Amino acid sequence: MPTASETHERVRTATRQNELWDKGIAASLEHERGITEKDGILYYDNRVYVPRHSSLRGEIISQSHDHITAGHSGIAKTRELVQREFWWPKIHKDVEAYVKGCETYMVTGLPDSHGHDALLVVVDRFSKAIILVPCNVELSAEGWARILRDHVYARHGMPQVVISDRGPQFVSAFMKELYRMLDITQNASTAFHPQTDGQTERVNQEVEKYLRIFINYHQTDWADWLPLAEFAHNNRAHSATGKSPFMILYGRNPRIIPDSPRTPNSKVPAASDFSKAIAQIHKETEAALEDAAGRMKAQYDKHKRPACEYHVGDKVWLDATNLHLPRPKKKLDDKRVGPFLVLEKTGASAYKLKLPPHWKIHLRFNEKLLTPFEPPAFANQEQPPPPPPDLIDGEEEWEIEEILDSKPRKVRAKRGQPSTTVIDYFIKWVRHTREHNSWVTASEMGNAQEAIAEYEAKMGSNERVSVVKIAMSKSPLAMVLNHHFDGEDISYLCQRKDGTQKWVKNPDVTLFENFLVEYWSNYEYHSLQRTES
After folding, report:
1. What are the b/e assignments for 429-466, b being 16+ CB within 10 Å?
2. Which of 257, 319, 365, 503 could form a disulfide with 4 if both were Cys (CB 3.0 to 4.6 A apart)?
3. CB 7 within 8 A of CB 57
4. Which domain holds residue 117?
5. 61 and 117 fall within a common domain
6. Nearest CA among 333, 337, 361, 355 for reference residue 482
């Protein structure tokens, strides 16, 4: 991400190269429509005017959308971030076009990350600020009280009301433990409401979306991204208040870039007026919250979108809800994949897509699972075409970007000879999208020993086994999720009631009979439904 000085220097250069500057726009418009000039940069309403340029406007939008401190927000929140410092004609349309062309879209049940398997989300109902704390599903009342003490009470004091989706018995034990830690002997005024809160559910979805974009393939580093996810949320204006949580809490928005200069005529309240400014912000926030309450229901009760008509050659995104992608947890997996080419229309609302050849699924999908692909609106969003393969000894070889996964595969030998086990690797190829990731045998990676060594060091083992013999857990089996064939062997992806998942190879049918009957019945039904559609 460029510094503010670098961005401003590029704006200054582009401004002088723009033909309007040669015509003396700075002088002629100095007293019109709030446009001023300082040090070779035009300002409109104390915001930097960005002239028309081949890539500059797109790069500025990218800083408020793609960066880890922005978190790939939607149109409204991205626009608010951009307009804090910059302005140009039709900026609303440019931001909308940029976000629609973004290829990265869009709490328990999380994979282990530094010993954590759950996330505590704390939401301030007034400022809409959030606090994100990694924790564990089996956390005791004492553990929850310690988190509230260290992360909420230490920053903001005792809340007036606490809403929780935990049961009343847990709530009572939790509050007693918190009072004991804080040495509070009398009845405190904090009220507890054990209920599900829709506001927190929406924040959960936002945080999951952020993590989905930035975490690694194995989803093991999600806890490392929480501070930046928290910052990204608290730095964006909320639709209900019209202000960012930072502005409501502290009276200002933080500087994302350290050397960001102030625009001319910036109105910064003196220390004596600061308390008045905060009081005014809180008064405006209360009014905005009251107004937003009347709009909430309409906002979340929108009608379903009308059916889309696609044509051969169109590109579409495919909903990934029913796809079994090879990653640890579906909660943090991609919500859509693609874009894919439409090959033909096969029914009133069904289409055949061109999918990667290694995807062993039907090619036909209902229109409800598809969304139109919006091509990038700015040059800096465009993905370069995949590079041609290298030619080594007359053979094509593709460049490996990263090894994502590995699994053993049993190879049957000739009669009388013992079978052998080989390791297959799941490869991300340089400048190819994730849909082109594919499994490659170790024997085909003769020129990639460095990549293999790096992967093995990262995984902490020279032979990572993801397909294993039956391993019974203390938690009983809940369901069978997926299957795949490997020669005469068959493996099933099984999920237990504690949420853990494991591939089980050639399971004992007597132990799995009921689950396998249910799985294959559902599989045949959905296969028939896809065929008919």
Report:
1. beebeeeebbebeeeebeebeebbeebbeeeeeeebee
2. 257
3. no
4. 109-263+273-302
5. no
6. 361
